Amino acid sequence: MDSEKRCAGCGVLLQDENVLQEGYTTSLENDICQRCFRMKNYGEYQIVTKSNEEYINILKGVAQTKDLVLYITDLLNLEKNIEEIRSIIPNKMILVLNKKDVLPKSVKETKLIDYLASKNIHFEEVIVVSVQKNYNIDYLLKRIKFYQTTKNVYVVGRTNAGKSSLINKLIQNYSCNTQELTMSPLPSTTLNTVKIDINEHLTLIDTPGLVDIGSILNHVDEKMVKKISAKKEIKPRTYQLRKNQSILIEDLVRIDYVEGERNSFTLFVSNDLKVRRLLNLFNNEELKDKNKITYSVKYDEDLVISGLGFIKIVNKGVIDLYIDKDVDSFMRKSLI
Asked: Which CATH architecture has domain 47-212?
C-alpha cells in the first residue's frame, strides 16, 4: 500500500508493493527503505537514476523561501562552475569547503578562501571544515545561528560533497535526534529532501546532490570508486618530467608532456591510486585509445579531472590528456 511516510535515510516515499521501485520496504512500520538498509548494513549500493532537471526543480523550490542555505563543496573536487547553484538560489548562503582533512596539512585555509574570493561570487561567508576530523564544526554552527532567517536551513551541493556526512555530524554533536542520513561514496544517495530537527531553533533540510555527469565516479565500477575516494590526508606525488615523458594513473588517465622545458607535475589524488611514469611516450601506446584533449598550460596551473582530484603544473608547456570521453577536465589557476 502507498504511504505518505518518507525514508529517514534518503527522503524517498516509502512503499511496500513493488520491490523493483525506489522506496520499497518490507513493512511500512520501518523508518528506512530497503536500499538504505542494505547500504547502511551491508555496504551494498543500488544505482537510482534521477535527472538533474528534477534536482534543479527542488533547488528552485528552495529559492522560493527566504531560508539560509549551506552550499557544501569538496575541496579536492571544487567544481568549475561553482556559480551554477548560486545562480538558481538567491537566498543568504554560506559556502562550506569540506574535506580539509584530505588536503595536506601545509595548505593554508586563507589561500583556499582567497581563491574563492577571486571568483567574485557572493556568499555571506566561506568556511573551511572537516567533518571527518570535526574541524570548525562549532564555528559553522555559530555562523548558521548568526545568518539564520527562519528555523529552516537548506543544505545543497553536488553528489559526494559530504552533505549527509555534515548533517550527521551536526546531529551527533548538537542534537538528541537519533535520525541518521544514509551515506555512501557513490553518487545519488539522497533521493529527495529530508528534514532533520537539530533542536527547537534549527531544522536542517538535506537536498539531493546535483549529479556531476562528467565526474569520473560515474564511469568506473564500485571497487574503483572506493579507491578514488580519498579517505585520509593525501601525500602529494611530484614527478619531474621532460618533453616526451608521461604519467599514467591506474588505467584511467594518461598525461603526455609534449612541449616545454623540464616541468614539475604534483598529483593531488587518493593515495590508493597507482601512478606510473613513462620515460619515453613514443614507445608506449597504453590508454591512447581514450579520448585525447590537448591543453596549453600557463605558469602555475592545475589540471582538474572531475571526481579524481587535480595535478599542479609549475611551468608552461603543452600536454595531451587521454581520458574517457564522458569525463570532464579543465585548467585553472593553481589552488595550492
From this structure: 3-Layer(aba) Sandwich (3.40)
